[in-house]
């Protein structure tokens, strides 16, 4: 039976072994680190990373890929194999600083190595996926402790870095011991803090294993075995999009993380139609006639920063557009209201706009004078009023909200500012009304 004195001695020894240095932001759990590391060559200095907005996957913006490349680029397995570097949707990091150090520049002199370049210390969150836990026996390098990052790491998620040409000699003479200190969370001499680091990341840690992101070939027999059989989506891009949509936090995450994961064209159109029908509209999105009144199309107004994903707004200012208090959870709440707008000159049909992967719904930019968001937000909207002539002059404004039988529209967009002409200019299509009617 252990005595109280023995308990005290044991706890004292544990605390001593843990050291007195800086601890991890939150306690680590199995395969869910609070800190990950990334080594970079001297060719990419921190100022270059800041200019690029952080570390982002090469496949984040690449266009014109084949179906095979789209599948493989979203596959965790193919990313680890290393064949998808030009179009991968992942960024490599490790929970093991010694492994990350190998990706910095190295000069070998006899039995010792001298590193130069940079070692970045990064706060982990839901984007960091434990590779070993996700791929199981398909992962041939468990010693690497890789944490693959979905889409990228914004610069404000980087806690700081070591300039390896300016660190102590112990990094060369006692590399193993130094790496152990880093792994325990200690901050060593030479660490440069990132003044742009967002401390909200101190409350997060990695996601752990995510078998649904394995990205095996859809015909692979492993999909019929545990743990992968629990997930029905075998097409890697759709599984990755779903994961982003389920975990993106509009209060913290950068737009670049989720922009790629917008609903595909068919899904976006069905959402728009569902929203219209839920308000008593016909199949074209126009309200059913009421006592000879004009038919007014209702369309969700989406800001340049807040975006529509899965039927809800995401991004800074989204909670204001939804009429809610800021949501600090992983997903914003349901869509609260839509805005009624009169017909604006358009550059292309809604389907074409969405088909190009544009994150916004609609066309013309309207200034919303009484919606208070961070900075001056412009919004884009599209609407059709049957029988109403297109607005010819951008100087004309929508001074009053549209009125229906119930009276003035009661919404946060009660005052719509001047209509701003789209970049492509006024619509040149003369058959726009006919195409809308036929749709």
UniProtKB/TrEMBL annotation:
Keywords in alphabetical order: Disulfide bond, Signal, Toxin, Virulence
Region (Disordered): 269-300, 390-439
Positions with biased composition (Basic and acidic residues): 285-298, 428-439
InterPro entries per record: Enterotoxin_A
Keyword Protein transport found: no
UniProt KW Lipoprotein keyword: no
Record-level Gene Ontology MF annotations: toxin activity
Signal peptide, first to last residue: 1-23
The protein's name: Putative enterotoxin
Origin species: Ophiocordyceps australis
